[in-house]
Write a structure and sequence with these properties.
With 166 residues, this protein is an all-alpha fold. Helix content is 66%, strand content 0%. Helix 4 packs antiparallel against helix 5. The chain starts with a helix and ends in a 14-residue tail after the last helix.
Length: 166
């Protein structure tokens, strides 16, 4: 059960990260920084969502101050991020048995894990090409994004933690 819970968390974080970690921004200059927007992002028109992602990528490019010699690595990173989009959630069959439902969830989590592994490899390749100052900026942007994601994620308590008393 812990494996399934862990894979689910990795899958959810991987799906979100693969499509947004490169879209890190802050405040009013960030088209996806609005708290209300993040809740509705996945319900919006795909073309509009893609335009927002492109805007974010440009913002990150500018904040990292990507140099001409780094453009090839940047483009490879972007290509990997775009090809590593989260898989669509499969529709559950209404008459699926519990084991079939669980198999479907594990399959989806494995797809998310595979996607996240591609994302990590692409991020590491870009990171190696960045200067120490750019790496620091990238780390700050990632921290900001992680903090934002954690703010919107449900809180989990360890399985060993006692239940709260009502």
């Amino acid at each position: 059960m812990k494996l399934i819970k862990s894979l689910l968390i990795v899958g959810l974080l991987g799906g979100a990260a693969a499509t947004t970690v490169h879209a890190m921004g802050k405040g009013d200059d960030c088209p996806m920084g609005d708290k209300g927007m993040s809740a509705h992002m996945w319900q919006m028109d795909p073309a509009k969502r893609q335009a927002m992602m492109e805007q974010h990528l440009q913002m990150l490019h500018d904040r990292l101050k990507i140099q001409p010699a780094q453009e090839t690595a940047w483009k490879a990173y972007i290509d990997a991020m775009k090809s590593a989009q989260a898989p669509a959630m499969p529709m559950a069959k209404p008459d699926a048995t519990l084991p079939e439902q669980m198999d479907g969830r594990v399959k989806m989590m494995q797809q998310h894990l595979d996607m996240m592994q591609k994302h990590v490899a692409a991020t590491k390749a870009l990171y190696q090409k960045l200067s120490p100052e750019q790496q620091k900026q990238f780390d700050q942007e990632a921290r900001h994004m992680r903090d934002g994601m954690q703010h919107h994620m449900p809180r989990h308590r360890p399985a060993s933690a006692p239940l709260p008393k009502n």
